[in-house]
Structures are given as C-alpha cells and as structure tokens.
Design a protein that fits this description.
The structure holds two protein chains of two kinds. By secondary structure, chain A is mainly α. Chain A has one domain. In chain A, about 70% of the residues lie in helices and about 0% in strands. The radius of gyration of chain A is 16 Å and the shape is elongated. By secondary structure, chain B is an all-alpha fold. Chain B has a domain of about 140 residues: Up-down Bundle (Four Helix Bundle (Hemerythrin (Met), subunit A)). Chain B is about 80% helix and about 0% strand. Chain B contains five helices and no strands. Chain B is elongated. Classes of the chains: A mainly alpha, B mainly alpha. At the A-B interface, α1 and α2 of A face α1, α2 and α5 of B.
C-alpha cells in the first residue's frame, strides 16, 4: 500500500494530536487543585496546549486550512 | 519593595536555603514579567501582520501558494508534544523520580530539536522551491519569516536552556525542594508552545 507524504504527515499529526491532547488534558485535570502562581500559569498553558492539539487534529483532518489549489 | 537579606556570617548551607526561600517568589514574579514582555513583543508583530494582511486584496498575495498545512500540522504536534513531556519532566522531578525526569527532559530536548529541524526544512522548501524570501516576497514573506524566525529563535534558546538545566540537575544544582530553574524552564517552554498555537493558526489555517 502506497501512502503519499501529505497523507502520512496528516495521519501522524492526527494521532499525535490525540495523544498530546489527552495527555495534556489529564495533566490539567491532575493539577487542577494545586495552589501557587506558577501552577495557575501552568494550568492556563496546559489548557492552551489542549487547544493547540485540537487545532492540529482539525488541520490534519483537513477541517481547518483546507484551501483549494491555485490554478 | 521586599528585599531579601542574608545575615552576616550566614554564607553556609542554611543561609543559602533561607535566601532561596526569601527570593523565590521575587524570581518567579520577575520571570513571569519577562514572559509577559515577550508576549507583548509577539503580540505587536502578530497584530501588525493581521493589520497588513487585512489591508491587502486577498491572501496570500498573487503568485504565492498557501503554506503546506500537512507538514506544519505534524511539526506543530512535535512541539506541542514537547510541552507535555516538559510538564511530566517537572512533575517527576517534584516526586523525586530522577530517571523518569531525565527521560522526559531528554525527550523534550529531542522534540524541540525536531521542531527546529522541521522549520529548517520548511524554510529550505519555501526559499529554494517556492522562491518565497524575507525581502523579495512583500508583506507575506517579511511577516512570515520575521514571526516564525523570532519564534524559532526562542525555541533555539529554549533548547539550549533545557540542555543547561538538564546538565545542572545531573550535577546536583537542584534538589527536591529547590528547583526554581526547572520551574522557569517549564514556564518558558510552555510559552513558546502557546505562541506557536497562535502562529500556526494565523499563518496556516486562516
């Protein structure tokens, strides 16, 4: 079975995005009650990391950034 | 303003511990202010880019193709993954699991270097195959290479910073209770991750 490079890249991006999203969401859940300024900043960063993973999944799936080829 | 002072004759280990406790919150505030100032720097460039983009007729400008979303998605996942591994490196340090800390820290460094390699590959493709350059492709080339280059510089500095932190931790600079450097490194690494979420969205997806 032949897979062209963009399909391979998109597949890895989707799988990687799911892994990163789940791992960062779990880290966010585990850290949710920790006190301190740095931990609050970490929570914001982990939340944005989850968002980034979701965006990467959508981009990999072609839902976002799916532009028509120029003529 | 709070000022931490070390008592006379307290240059022993206990004095250093006391100084660490007294100055930790100040150092944290200082580092957060540094990150906020960096955020302002990126924000000004991002808003300048968005303003110029919306001032023109269509985007990307005529003669320039849309950027390669598939490869950029893969490269983004590599960087986001490094953010997750860095978080677990710090967590394992806090829980005194040095081997796991070392594994996640080295993985973070490798993923960071992998992202930089991906960015170098993309630059090479754009410059030599697509003929998109910083000075010769108008607003698009200038804003793309300035913003992604600035981010790449931050990632490069971050990789060096993490290597130094790792070597310091191997040589016993940090302990289970004194590890502000690792906290700062994690904050910095998360920051470059989050900036890339924005850059990836505005350059590749909209």
């Amino acid at each position: 079975m032949h897979i062209d490079p963009p399909t391979f890249e998109r597949t890895i991006a989707i799988i990687g995005g799911i892994v990163v999203g789940v791992v960062s969401a779990k880290a966010l859940k585990d850290d949710w009650t920790t006190p301190g300024i740095e931990n609050h900043v970490f929570k914001i960063m982990l939340g944005l990391l989850c968002l980034g993973a979701v965006i990467a999944i959508f981009a990999g799936a072609g839902v976002l950034g799916n532009f028509p080829k120029a003529a | 303003m709070a000022v931490a002072t070390l008592p006379h004759g307290a240059a022993d280990h206990g004095g250093a511990d006391q100084l660490y406790i007294e100055t930790r919150s100040l150092r944290l505030q200082g580092f957060l202010l540094f990150l906020i100032s960096d955020c302002v720097l990126f924000s000004s460039f991002i808003f300048a880019y968005l303003y110029m983009r919306n001032s023109g007729q269509g985007w990307p400008p005529p003669g320039i193709q849309h950027l390669d979303v598939a490869f950029a998605s893969l490269n983004s996942v590599v960087l986001f993954g490094s953010g997750a591994t860095m978080h677990y490196a710090l967590e394992n340090w806090k829980h005194n699991h040095f081997n796991r800390y070392a594994f996640f820290m080295l993985l973070t460094i490798v993923l960071g270097a992998g992202f930089l390699s991906g960015q170098a590959y993309e630059y090479h493709h754009l410059i030599f195959d697509e003929k998109v350059t910083w000075a010769g492709s108008g607003i698009f080339g200038a804003s793309f290479f300035t913003l992604t280059g600035m981010h790449g510089f931050h990632v490069s500095v971050g990789v060096l910073y993490l290597i130094i932190l790792f070597l310091q931790s191997v040589h016993g600079v940090y302990t289970k209770d004194k590890f502000f450097g690792l906290t700062a490194g994690t904050l910095y690494w998360h920051f470059v991750d989050v900036i890339w979420v924005v850059l990836f969205s505005i350059f590749y997806l909209i």
